[in-house]
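Quick one:
INPUT:
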């Protein structure tokens, strides 16, 4: 409002008071929903009149009225919470006293403790609940508090707490939530920072999918306890629209808004709570702010002129942090702003507690979220980092690094909490829990029993099957004279699994908007694309065979262009067996270039979560995907997959290789119960598919098998993927033109061969007196000394990982350098992985040994029309 004089301003204020009074009357008589409907009508009318709405500013107040009462026993809950706080501090402090540099965090849990306790006492359902267990993502830095609560529950003992972050030298506790390290305790990994939000969203969506597909009967609620600082990670906010679009009323984020990240304020010169509120509301979420406790709410009610609210609206987070550090008196003076009437009111009030430390306010917010059915909810809980730590770190910029309390700070902390530790015992930092059967112990147990048992608690169900039925899959070992791509071969196999196999209800296909690229669109009309609510339109291609069919019971998860979202769905499906659901096998198809390179962090998290499934790197190969160019052509994903200990990585040339690997993977996951991911790279080059050679199946699974065998080979060519065919051409040329006996071996997994060799080498090193073990590689290749030429669509570093275990020198050809567009023939010549370059490499290797004349190499270079002085493709 712009007013030219005092009269105009007073007239405006009078009208505003009338409108506000009318709004109050409407709310009082007809309720908040009626008021919201009227405001929407006013907004539409204003838009028609050309009134531009200013940026929405969320008032710095609670969204919900302060509750009349808290349903639990607040006194007992406070005492239990204080014991958790004490033990969490002692856990970290004792570890760092005994082993300086152990690390750990006290301040994060200190700010989030009340919210976590309200959730555990009243909302988080356990495995014994009739509606099944809720999903639980816990802020990683708060893990000491989770251990401290488990200690009170007698699920962890003092020796385990004493061994915090000692996982090699003792039966200790992991630094953060890591199911790989504590497979019966932690359920979901939430570190690295920022991954929990996107995983939680897609977990909640997957639970809807599983129910709609008929795989389960219940719909769990997903709770994600997060920090305001980690919301700056792109993954944290990037998928908010998915939650609202799918109407995930079963999803709740609880964000600890302590206004601090690791180094300082999250938004020192702004308000992160308002920023987050706008982001979530704009994405269609229900936003519940829990900013203040009872006393500040009473002050706001008494503030007839809105002066306190105005002060709050212009106070930036850096100032809120300073006020938190200075204490209640500073906050009272700031909020009242020298107004005598407000000062008198504030003086009569109790402590000015932040909402995230007020049990009643938090319970009201959690209860509202738990009742929500159609919208995801975010609870923004304002807290103080390091709450109750006092001078040891409360609201300090270094609070995140606080790892111990000593002297007067420790004594003051004990006194604030009222923990029964004597002065004589104080320095020893004893762990404290109520006696078994005491009032506190009974209350703690009864609250969790009412909700279905303790959390977190990971319960992995036993293997699902006794064997894999291979009969429907036999044809995929038989080959085809028709030209087929390995991608198409895999899609046909997937189609069989989904429609004509006992595993049809266990397979979950996932595609990030590349189904037509990979040929998966053939499944659209057969099994459908999952869409909650079904298909509410007639697709433009309704009259064609491969119509785009969406269904509420659809099977395919078509994620749109988001590998991170698709990988999060993969993790949800691949860990279903450990979260109260059935054993499922996700198959995630993606451009191989956009897999490990783009979402490697999530693949690592999948390993931590003990997920199971198939990662399908389609259209792979730097020269095989010939048209797409530099950013799409993958020649290094197998090198990126190599360090992932839970991944079995394969590059296939033929359909029978693919069938053998898929069946073996299914057996490992569903029969043996292995926590393993299978990474398969398949390609889009069509050629005839031979049948499975006799006796090759197990060798294919282990990583290497003979494709063409000769007596007393002079040289061995190691080929992989589609480039195996170039090796076969080269071997034929060497025999025909030079009389050289070259055997060809297909390498399906460089990394598995390397792991096996390292395992044998390690065993031999540690057992010097025992008969040495031989790597599988040497078992198959023998000890006959000869040169080896490795040729593949991957960088040279990959085959070089095997060099030390070969019975002769290795010459590696590969696709080092940036990709580009051209024909496959031109690209293979450019990167020097063609049959011709393989011949040159073989002749050069034999010339080094004096088995052929150097002139033969030069003649071959000339005969093939190659330029020996052209630049290295890596530099072009």
């Amino acid at each position: 409002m712009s007013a030219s004089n005092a009269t105009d301003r007073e007239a405006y204020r009078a009208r505003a008071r009338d409108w506000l009074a009318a709004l109050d009357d409407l709310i009082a008589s007809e309720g908040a929903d009626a008021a919201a409907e009227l405001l929407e009508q006013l907004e539409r009318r204003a838009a028609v009149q050309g009134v531009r709405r200013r940026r929405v500013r969320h008032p710095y107040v609670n969204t919900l009225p302060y509750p009349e009462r808290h349903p639990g026993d607040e006194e007992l809950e406070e005492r239990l919470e204080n014991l958790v706080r004490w033990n969490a501090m002692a856990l970290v402090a004792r570890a760092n006293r005994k082993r300086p540099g152990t690390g750990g965090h006290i301040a994060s849990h200190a700010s989030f403790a009340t919210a976590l306790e309200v959730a555990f006492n009243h909302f988080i359902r356990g495995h014994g609940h009739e509606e099944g267990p809720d999903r639980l993502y816990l802020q990683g830095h708060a893990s000491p508090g989770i251990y401290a609560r488990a200690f009170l529950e007698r699920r962890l003992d003092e020796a385990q707490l004493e061994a915090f972050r000692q996982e090699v030298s003792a039966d200790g506790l992991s630094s953060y939530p890591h199911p790989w390290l504590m497979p019966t305790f932690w359920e979901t990994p939430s570190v690295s920072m920022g991954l929990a939000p996107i995983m939680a969203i897609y977990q909640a969506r997957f639970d809807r999918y599983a129910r709609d597909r008929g795989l389960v009967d219940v719909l769990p609620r997903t709770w994600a306890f997060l920090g305001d600082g980690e919301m700056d990670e792109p993954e944290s906010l990037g998928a908010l629209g998915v939650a609202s679009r799918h109407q995930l009323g079963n999803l709740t984020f609880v964000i600890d808004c302590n206004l601090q990240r690791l180094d300082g304020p999250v938004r020192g010169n702004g308000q992160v709570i308002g920023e987050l509120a706008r982001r979530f509301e704009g994405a269609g979420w229900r936003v519940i702010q829990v900013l203040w406790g009872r006393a500040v709410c009473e002050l706001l009610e008494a503030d007839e002129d809105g002066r306190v609210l105005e002060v709050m609206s212009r106070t930036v987070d850096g100032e809120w942090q300073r006020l938190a550090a200075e204490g209640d008196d500073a906050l009272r003076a700031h909020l009242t702003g020298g107004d005598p009437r407000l000062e008198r009111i504030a003086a009569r009030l109790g402590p000015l507690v932040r909402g995230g430390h007020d049990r009643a306010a938090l319970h009201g917010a959690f209860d509202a979220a738990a009742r929500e059915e159609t919208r995801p909810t975010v609870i923004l809980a304002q807290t103080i980092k390091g709450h109750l730590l006092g001078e040891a770190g409360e609201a300090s910029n270094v609070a995140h690094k606080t790892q111990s309390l000593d002297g007067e700070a420790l004594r003051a902390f004990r006194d604030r909490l009222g923990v029964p530790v004597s002065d004589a015992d104080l320095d020893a930092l004893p762990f404290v829990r109520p006696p078994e059967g005491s009032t506190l112990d009974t209350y703690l147990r009864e609250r969790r029993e009412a909700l279905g048992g303790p959390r977190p608690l990971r319960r992995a169900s036993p293997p699902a099957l006794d064997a894999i039925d291979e009969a429907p899959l036999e044809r995929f070992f038989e080959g085809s004279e028709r030209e087929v791509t390995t991608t198409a071969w895999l899609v046909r196999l997937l189609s069989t699994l989904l429609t004509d196999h006992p595993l049809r209800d266990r397979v979950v296909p996932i595609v990030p908007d590349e189904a037509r690229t990979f040929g998966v669109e053939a499944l659209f009309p057969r099994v459908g694309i999952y869409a909650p609510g079904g298909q509410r339109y007639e697709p433009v291609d309704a009259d064609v065979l491969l119509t785009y069919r969406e269904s509420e019971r659809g099977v395919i998860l078509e994620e749109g262009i988001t590998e991170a979202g698709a990988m999060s769905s993969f993790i949800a499906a691949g860990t279903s067996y450990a979260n109260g659901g059935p054993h499922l096998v996700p198959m995630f198809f993606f451009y191989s270039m956009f897999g490990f390179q783009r979402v490697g962090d999530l693949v690592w998290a999948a390993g931590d979560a003990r997920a199971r499934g198939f990662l399908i790197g389609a259209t792979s190969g730097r020269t095989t995907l010939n048209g797409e160019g530099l950013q799409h052509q993958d020649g290094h994903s197998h090198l990126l997959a190599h360090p992932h200990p839970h991944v079995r990585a394969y590059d296939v040339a033929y359909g029978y290789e693919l069938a053998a690997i898929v069946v073996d993977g299914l057996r490992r996951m569903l029969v043996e119960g292995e926590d393993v991911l299978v990474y398969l790279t398949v390609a889009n080059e069509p050629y005839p598919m031979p049948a499975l050679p006799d006796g090759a199946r197990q060798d294919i699974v282990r990583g290497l098998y003979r494709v063409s065998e000769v007596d007393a080979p002079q040289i061995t060519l190691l080929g992989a993927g589609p480039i195996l065919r170039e090796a076969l051409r080269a071997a034929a040329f060497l025999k025909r033109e030079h009389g050289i006996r070259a055997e060809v071996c297909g390498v399906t997994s460089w990394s598995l061969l390397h792991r096996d060799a390292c395992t044998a080498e390690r065993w031999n090193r540690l057992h010097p007196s025992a008969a040495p073990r031989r790597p599988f590689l040497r078992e198959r290749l023998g000890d006959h000394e000869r040169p080896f030429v490795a040729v593949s669509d991957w960088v040279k570093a990959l085959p070089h990982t095997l060099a030390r275990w070969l019975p002769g020198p290795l010459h590696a050809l590969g696709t080092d350098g940036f990709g580009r567009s051209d024909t496959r023939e031109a690209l293979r010549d450019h990167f020097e992985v063609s049959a011709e370059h393989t011949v040159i490499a073989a002749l050069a290797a034999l010339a080094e040994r004096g088995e052929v004349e150097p002139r033969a190499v030069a003649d071959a270079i000339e005969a093939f029309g190659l330029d020996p002085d052209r630049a290295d493709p890596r530099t072009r």
